[in-house]
Amino acid sequence: MYQYYVREVKSVVDGDTIDVVIDLGFNVLFEQRVRLAGIDTPESRTSDKFEKSLGLEAKEYLKKQLKDAKSIVIRTEKMDSSEKYGRILGWLYVNGESESINNKMINDGYAWGYLGETKIKDFAALAAQRSKSGK
C-alpha cells in the first residue's frame, strides 16, 4: 500500500473526484486529480434532475467530510495508481481514522460500491441506505 499526504484540497469536483495538492516531501508539491477508489456517486452534471440532486448531495457530503480535516492521506494499492483519465485512484483517510471516506460514503448512502464494472444506478437503494444510516 502506498500513501500520499494531502497538503491542500483545491476543489471537490463531484461526489467521487477531488483536486488536491500532494506533499511529496522536501518542499515538493504536486497538483493532482484524485478519483475515490471503489465507489461511484450519482452525476452532478446531468440533465436528469433527480440524479443531479443526488449528485450534488454527494458532493456536499464529501466537502463536509474534508472541510476541517487536520490531515488527509490518500492510500493506493500500487505505486502508479492512475487510471485512463490520469487521476490517482485512492482511498481517502481523514485525521487518522481507520475507516475511509470512500466506505463512509457507501455506508451513509451517498455512493455505490464500484470496481470498474458496468455502472448500475439504483437510486432507490441509495435512498434506502441513507435512511438506514440516518444521514
What's this, in brief?
The chain is α+β, with helices and mostly antiparallel strands. It is built from three helices and seven strands.
Describe the sheet with the most strands.
5 strands, mixed, barrel
Q: Looking at the chains present, what oligomeric state does this protein adopt? A: single chain
CATH fold annotation: OB fold (Dihydrolipoamide Acetyltransferase, E2P)
Give the overall shape, derived from the CA principal axes. globular
* Number of helices, where a helix is a run of at least 4 consecutive DSSP H or I residues: 3
Structural class: alpha+beta
Percent of residues in helices comes to: 25-40%
Strand order of the largest sheet: 1-2-3-6-5
Count of the separate structural domains? 1
DSSP summary, beta strand count = 7
Give the name of the CATH architecture.
Answer: Beta Barrel
What is the percentage of strand-forming residues? Answer: 25-35%
Order of helices and strands: EEEEHEEHEH
- Spans of at least 5 consecutive residues with low confidence: none
SSE layout and pairings?
Blueprint: E1 2-14, E2 17-25, E3 28-36, E4 39-40, H1 49-67, E5 72-76, E6 88-94, H2 101-107, E7 112-113, H3 123-133
Parallel strand pairs: 3-6
Antiparallel strand pairs: 1-2, 1-5, 2-3, 4-7, 5-6
Characterize the structure shown.
- With 135 residues, the protein is α+β, with helices and mostly antiparallel strands.
- It has one domain (2-133): OB fold (Dihydrolipoamide Acetyltransferase, E2P), CATH 2.40.50.
- The chain is 27% helix and 35% strand.
- The protein contains 3 helices and 7 strands, in the order ββββαββαβα.
- It has a 5-stranded mixed β-barrel with strand order 1-2-3-6-5. Strands 4-7 form a two-stranded antiparallel sheet.
- Strand 2 and strand 3 (28-36) form a beta hairpin.
- The protein is globular and about 45 Å long.
- The mean pLDDT is 90.
